[in-house]
Amino acid sequence: MPSSRPSQQPEPQGYLHGFSDQEADRLVRQARILEHRIHGNLPFKNCRNLLEVGCGVGAQTQILLRDFPDLHVTGLDANKKNLDAATRVTNKQDVSAERVQFVSGDATAMDFDSDCFDGAYLCWVLEHIPDASRVLSEVRRVLIGGSPVVVNEVQNASFFLAPYSPSTLAYWAAFNDHQYDLGGDPFIGARLGNLLLENGYRDIDTEVRTVHLDNRWPEERSQFLAYWSELLLSGSEGLLRTGLVNGETVEGMKRELAMVAHDPDSVIFYSFVQATARVDLGA
Fold it and tell me: What is the pTM of this model?
């Protein structure tokens, strides 16, 4: 449980990858790579006014707007640089300005009236928030009864590479420890069922979605490894600064990732959780 590891005071901006333009570009690429694993059969066909909590740089927003042409999306995020990037990303689409707006705000205390949205979408956001339960409580408050909710979250204990990569796994352990220190939870996907239940949602379903790439899918394996390598290295500056890893571990990880990339029998394994639920009609 997260409470078993003492947390340091969260940094003012507790997203360990940072908020650079390069990070914004990485998130857009990540969304495209994982799109077919996340966006199939989302229950938003009858929604018209969707809340996206933690919209970030708009990487998921642009997919939602494309897939659901009758949808208006309100993207909420606490970081101004993210919101500026989200505006740029969605402006590149042929989408009416009336279909999307981005709002600065705190997901644990939203400045929205109750019962004003008919759907909600959260993707890779609860892992970064110290009070995930409060976020889900607020989402429930602002949704009309019967509205669908989709939450995608990490379960970082599932990550594995072959050939065996000890420096990479040591780095990954430090990466997850640092996320705890920032007030997050890198294993929160496993707790989504409990979190939704305790906050009054119904029709809760959790599906473990696994990325398991080997010689059967060499092209996708290569693409996913490149994305994953980029994700790992995006946190290296912060980890080195904290002393949770040293330069030798980072360099060892780089060598291992290159070895995995060139090994004809390499394997990548990672699982995340997609939860769906509805707000009770009597809420």
Answer: 0.90
